[in-house]
Amino acid sequence: MSHLPILPVLLPALTAVTLLLTARLSEATQxxxxxxxxxxxVGVTITLVMEASSGAPTPYFLGDWAAPFGIVLVVDRLxxxxxxxxxxxxxxVVAYAAHGxxxxxxxxxxxxxxxxxxxxxxxxxxxxxxxxxxxxxxxIASYGLMLHGGGRARIxxxxxxxxxxxxxxxxxxxxxxxxxxxxxxxxxxxxxxxxRDVAPGMSVVVQSAALLLLVVFAxxxxxxxxxxxxxxxYGATSAPVAALFAIMTKVGVYSILRVYTLIFPGxxxxxxxxxxxxxxxxxLATILLASLGAIAANSLRGMVSNxxxxxxxxxxxxxxxxxxxxxxxxxxxxxxxxxxxxxxxLVVELIAAExxxxxxxxxxxxQVRRPVLLGIMFxxxxxxxxxxxxxxxxxxxxxxxxxxxxxxxxxxIWGVVxxxxxxxxxxxxxxxxxxxxxxxxxxxxxxxSEMVExxxxxxRERRAIFPAGTGSAALLLALxxxxxxxxxxxxxxxxAAAAQLANPDGYIDAVLPEGVPAVEVYTGARK
Amino acid sequence: xxxxxxxxxxxxxxxxxxxxxxxxxxxxxxxxSLLSYAANLFIFASSYLRTGLAPITSIKDQGFPDPLPQAxxxxxxxxxxxxxxxxxxxxxxxxxxxxxxxxxxxADADKEGAA
Lengths: 527, 115
Description:
The complex is a heterodimer.
Chain A: H1 7-21, H2 27-53, E1 58-61, E2 72-75, H3 77-97, H4 108-124, H5 128-146, H6 152-183, H7 188-196, H8 203-221, H9 229-236, H10 239-263, H11 274-296, H12 300-320, H13 324-353, E3 365-366, H14 371-386, H15 392-403, H16 410-437, E4 439-440, H17 460-465, H18 467-485, H19 487-502, H20 505-511
Parallel strand pairs in A: 3-4
Antiparallel strand pairs in A: 1-2
Chain B: H1 2-20, H2 25-45, H3 68-98, H4 109-114
Helix pairs in contact in B: 1-2, 2-3
């Protein structure tokens, strides 16, 4: 048994602890450890993707306990893809933070690595209670990261974020109690088998548990009735953290994908396709409302946050039909949109740092110091997130539209997705022209009031000119372009990943080669 | 016994949700605590309520209670306890930074809420 699948969890955990122990060493040492570990993680996850692309899901039995009794990690194409995406964004975020944001408070890199550990664990685990635990790990780290540096806006937005997620966690625990009480197991593969012949009296409980889980995951993914926390949270936190959080909404999307293809698939009698029926209208309404939000936003960051929600809506529109083609389309669009949103959060911060007191507000401000470079970066990012050709956003949306062409509500879906794109582009054009062309003369002496809230001695303005900041934004933009250039291999990978999701028997066989265990350990307590 | 446990969980949830929707951070935290107690009791009850049985293993084929929910609830308790501590510190910090214990950190809402 290869120990590779545990490394994406172990490596960040050990790095975080090492960073704590060496907290008294110089900043340079801390940053070096952090970046090196993140690069190592990229290597590990690329190996995992290569291994996963060659065939069946690989289970990893923790402590070598047999499947339904111990906790199992499973590497299939989807989870390998997700950890690779996390690592890629992680590198850019660490490199960006290393030019100064990490000094606004203490232990930034420790928190970041714990967050990465939680993300990777959530993507890899094959046990639903373990999924809850990893959710908590990534959330606790995200509270720390979100509030990092402090300040009034951050604390006030952070309070909402924390309380909302704690309420979500309580719902998660209740749903898990219902699942365990009715099905008697927490291993996802085992659950998938037991759901198929659930006792008639229990089907109501299973149904409620499945829909309660949907609420929890929709809160994380930021779907319509539950997304209003996102623009405020992402707007208040620091740029690298917002970029990292771009992958955090995908944990919700991933969990929906995993749970409603494996445990409660569309053909499960218990649910009767209910998740899809709930998700599709929610996703479409999310697209519309968040697109309007993108136009109405009064800052660049607010606009990007709303565009992030639009992209989640597009993804969920594809996923909600739960057909193999639409899952593949949703996955391809997810790779593109996660990278581009993370890139845009960084680009916006670079722009904001050069606009004096106005930051990223859409009010006249002095011209940025590097109008050509930042203008090109913003233009590329805007074209990519708006879904214009030649970028992956365009290809992804075409895939999504194609895959939904056959279902009943296709005209509505097409209309909403295209209208959302149009609104998004209008918002981008408006804000882009405002920021770069509606400028005021640069004052002779820079006002220094903007630096009051900063703990670091380095002015925010000078930090952004440090090449690492621009470099990591450029790295993410390059990755976005690569997603479009290598659309062929990437989409064949996502096609295969969708095929794996659509046929959960491969996953179940890998984890439980002998089917449901014959030993009924729970009979003692069951009537 | 079932009715007693059901009623306590239901009361905890009702109280928790009510307090969670209050405008002060203190009542919100109390609400979250009540909600997490309810969730913990609920997951504890997912192994069904049986009394007078030997733990872990069965004696004379009487059966035994399922030990797994006890382990689960331990994890959930640790997490919710830690998070309660975190929210308490966070809201104290919000109070110190903004001079208000309103969840929206509005200073003027103090008078409004007191009325």
